[in-house]
Amino acid sequence: MLRHALPRFVEGVIAPVVVFYAAFAVLGLNGALIAAVVWVYGGIAWRYARGHGVSGMLLLAAVGVTVRAVLAAVTHSAVVYFLQPTLGTLLVAMAFLASVPLRRPLAQKLATDMVPMPEAFLKHARVRQFFLRISLLWSLVFFSNAVISLWMLFNESIGMYLWVRTSLVAALGAVAVAVSILGFRRCLTHVNGAAAHA
């Protein structure tokens, strides 16, 4: 899973920051915006050239980056460019949080989209409790991400925002992933143990 996820993390998170900051330092805001758009569409062209499919989500992301770049260029503000994904993160945090009192944990929905799980397993009380807690955890992670991002966006330089915020968010996400994996393993051990004694 890590071998599968790491290249996508570098391509989707680290590389865009490097590209934007390098272009920002050398060419200014408009050059950085153009570089960000070229990076996204270059990635799509590279996939087509190698015969790999391009997902609808990636195409939507490309359109989103284009709209953000145009708005930032018109307003002459890098803050505008970074504000939209931060507000999106805040909405995701609210979705995770709202799913808990509704007893329809979003973490469970995302997990079962990636890995099919038996219905009997998902109905187990310990499993339900795990997914509710993990939904709360990820809500906290996304809220923290949004708060850090907003504070740095309005109080620090773009360079500081790009590097420090990216590092903090990556570290926070890594800790949450580790807690999620360890929690799921404990949940599996408990459920399997209970089934063995039944």
TrEMBL record:
The organism's place on the tree of life at top rank: Bacteria
Keywords for the protein's UniProt record, in alphabetical order: Membrane, Transmembrane, Transmembrane helix
Residues spanning the membrane: 20-42, 54-74, 80-100, 130-154, 160-184
Family matches, as InterPro entries: UCP010219 (IPR016566)
A family per Pfam: DUF3159
Name of the molecule in the record: Intracellular septation protein A
Species for this entry: Actinomadura fulvescens
